[in-house]
Amino acid sequence: MMSLGEKPGDFRSNNAYSLGISYKRNDLSLGIAYEELNTPNSAGNQSGAVVGDYGFSSPFVTSKASGAKVDHQRIFGAGGAYQFGKVGVSALYTNVRFDYLDNTRLTVNNGEISLTDYITPNLLLGAAYIYTWGEYQPGGSQPKWHQVNLGADYFLSKRTDLFLVGIYQRAAGDATYAQIYTLSPSSNKSQISAVAGIRHRF
Fold first, then answer.
1. For 141-170, b where at least 16 C-beta lie within 10 A, e where not — what string?
2. Are the CB atoms for 23 and 9 separated by under 8 Å?
3. What CATH number is associated with residue 81?
4. I want to staple 31 with a disulfide (CB 3.0 to 4.6 A). Which of 22, 96, 125, 159 is the partner?
5. Please, are residues 4 and 49 in contact by the beta-carbon 8 Å criterion?
6. Which residues of 100-109 are buried (b: 16+ CB within 10 A; e: fewer)?
7. Per-residue pLDDT for the chain (202 aa), expressed as one digit of tens each?
8. Into how many domains does the chain fold?
9. CB 98 within 8 A of CB 105
């Protein structure tokens, strides 16, 4: 994928590109992906690749030191999954680096392992653990987060299902608060979220 910045005379301004490859054989699935964003959501170029909702509810899109915006973001991810009959196991690693306009940077790593199991043909249960660790430079601050996800999905038909998801996150290391993605920051180091709903596929 290549998305041009659309700013005359400045090819780098608010452009983006990514590439990925996946492999599947029988019950094994593997994949890797890479993405780069340059001056995303730039105030001087709102016709570029990344505008509007960039970094929605993310605590990482501004510098901790000065509040400066992201100059360059790089994302790398690799993962795999294997299906043991009705039980599925998957693992994922991602590395994200934010370079800010004030010459500071943050590197964030995520490691995730998840397990799913069809208890019955109509009921799927799942659990995941995600460990996040980062480092700010200069200064060497090292925030960390632990997160556990639990979910249940009950299929009323081929196209309609009921779902329930619970998430618990705990900040550690130099992290001062928890913040589950899409939610506002917690006032302390713990945060809990629960979502229930019905889904119909047309």
1. eebebebebebebbbeeeeebeeeeebbbb
2. no
3. 2.40.160.10
4. 22
5. yes
6. bbeebbbebb
7. 998 888 887 878 899 999 999 999 999 999 999 999 999 988 888 888 888 888 777 889 999 999 999 999 999 999 999 999 999 999 999 999 999 999 999 999 999 999 999 999 999 999 999 999 999 999 999 999 999 999 999 999 999 999 999 999 999 999 999 999 889 999 999 999 999 999 999 9
8. 1
9. yes
Helix (H) or strand (E) holding 64: none
Query: What is the C-alpha to C-alpha distance for residues 148 and 78, in angstroms, rounded to an integer?
Result: 20
End-to-end CA distance of the chain: 28
Whether the bond into 138 is cis, omega within 30 of 0: yes
Integer Cα distance of 101 and 195 in angstroms = 37
Question: What is the secondary structure of 15-62 as a DSSP string?
Answer: -EEEEEEEEEETTEEEEEEEEEEESTT-TT-TTSSS-SSTTTT-TTSB
CB distance 51 to 45 below 8 Å: no
Structural domain containing residue 108: 2-200
